[in-house]
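Protocol step 4 of 6.
Sequence for Thiol peroxidase (Paraglaciecola psychrophila 170) entered exactly as in the expression construct, tag removed. Do not edit the line below.
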Amino acid sequence: MATVTLQGNAFNTCGDLPKVGSKAPNFILVETDLSETTLADYKGSKLILNIFPSVDTGVCATSIRTFNQKASELRNTKVVCVSADLPFAAARFCGVEGIKNVVTGSSFRGSFGTDYGVSFSDGPLTGLLSRSVVVIDEQGNVVYTEQVAETTDEPDYAAATAVL
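Step 5 output, structure tokens:
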């Protein structure tokens, strides 16, 4: 279990991020067209999982925009933006913002939050996902993780992309 803050107030997640060097846990996420995507769909590509509470908050929206821009500069790398938002919210946001270089995945049907240790287990965001980044290499190994200590802060984009 990890402890993070929201505006200085401490809250817990249901577990810990996968360890660097371990195999990434499989996942099932729902895309904007309601199809499912899994870790296997990205085999042979590097993968950045941009995990956050909700697309309808400023910092979360900024992380999508920033990773969208960075994704266009990265070779053989896919970015999946993961939240518990319904796929319709992600589709609306990406359409309005012109987001084209990232995929959005909703965790609302599956166990992603538990499998990756990022579901809030208490506090006002219980059930949503803690702001985190997981980078996975072409073989499915975790090569970088960051659990953002303060939920209202952005992740370290430079560190996440440097491992690629």
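Step 6, annotate. The helical segments are 58-71, 87-97, 112-115, 157-162.
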